[in-house]
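Below is a filled-in request sheet from our internal design queue. Each sheet records the structural input a requester submitted and the sequence that came back. We keep these sheets so that new team members can see what a complete request looks like end to end.

REQUESTER: design group, bay 2
PRIORITY: normal
MODE: inverse folding
CHAIN LENGTH: 290
BACKBONE (tokenized):
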């Protein structure tokens, strides 16, 4: 049995609408289902993940918030709640812009989340901390990456998503890597629905990450170069692979019922892919040998 290492992970990419909140919330649940203690932090200013876990009312009606913890007027336990699904949540609130402004005025603006929340809780209270972030550059996102130093990047088919991947690497990760180690745990093609033997957006996404960052592609999305050649030459035998996390209405239906996917349908086939993502977090990277 592989040894698990406690770590924090930011689910981030500089592109909205790629399913970050869905991946992050269900990843937190999957890690908890595997016997880990898990905190899910919703730092997306829209609060979509919090709403999908039953904390929509908290978005505007709260007594204490993240800023109170960062600036030492509250304890982490004052802003953390039990989801009822095996893991805890620090839900989003509608005051992220004011928190950002306060962070900018501190002496060490990049270290507030690390020093006041992530480091005190990780390994002491929680095995894993999963953070959902917005798709824009922000002080909170910068804080998250400095604190977590691990990132999972969901992408959906389309040129905008691939551009977001490139922007994230060049504009966000590259400058930070001058000061800290940043580990991309996985790049995850998400919401795929079309065949990949034709040059649709689904194929372009999956092929681009398999050729450009093969070591970061989970097994459920991995297609070796020789398989692309077989498809293009008409030599493919049998069923075509269906890589990535597939478009699945039950993600949306579960969200509407304010519960994770497993609670909505424990037999949904995408849970197997979420299990591999959880193993990647536990292991600290993709393993193509097993």
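RETURNED SEQUENCE:
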């Amino acid at each position: 049995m592989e040894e698990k290492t406690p770590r924090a992970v930011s689910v981030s990419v500089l592109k909205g609408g790629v399913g970050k909140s869905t991946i992050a919330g269900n990843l937190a649940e999957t890690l908890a289902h595997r016997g880990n203690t898990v905190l899910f932090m919703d730092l997306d200013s829209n609060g979509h993940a919090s709403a999908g876990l039953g904390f929509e009312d908290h978005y505007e009606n709260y007594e204490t918030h993240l800023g109170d913890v960062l600036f030492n007027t509250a304890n982490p336990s004052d802003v953390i709640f039990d989801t009822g699904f095996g893991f805890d949540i620090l839900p989003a609130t509608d005051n992220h812009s004011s928190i950002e402004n306060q962070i900018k005025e501190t002496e060490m603006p990049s270290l507030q989340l690390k020093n006041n929340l992530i480091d005190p809780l990780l390994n002491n209270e929680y095995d894993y901390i999963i953070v959902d972030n917005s798709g824009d550059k922000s002080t909170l996102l910068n804080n998250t990456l400095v604190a977590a130093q691990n990132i999972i990047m969901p992408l959906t088919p389309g040129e905008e998503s691939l551009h977001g991947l490139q922007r994230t690497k060049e504009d966000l990760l590259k400058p930070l890597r001058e000061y800290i180690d940043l580990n991309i745990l996985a790049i995850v093609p998400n919401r795929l629905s079309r065949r990949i033997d034709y040059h649709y957006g689904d194929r372009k996404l999956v092929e681009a990450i398999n050729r450009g960052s093969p070591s970061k592609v989970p097994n459920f999305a991995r297609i070796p170069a020789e398989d692309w050649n077989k498809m293009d030459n008409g030599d493919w035998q049998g069923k075509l692979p269906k890589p990535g996390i597939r478009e699945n209405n039950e993600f949306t239906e579960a969200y509407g019922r304010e519960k994770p996917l497993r609670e909505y349908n424990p037999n949904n086939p995408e849970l197997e892919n979420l299990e591999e993502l959880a193993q990647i977090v536990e292991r600290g990277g993709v393993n193509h040998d097993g």
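SHEET NOTES:
- Residues 8 and 148 are 5 Å apart (CA to CA).
- The chain has a mean pLDDT of 94.
FILED BY: M.R.
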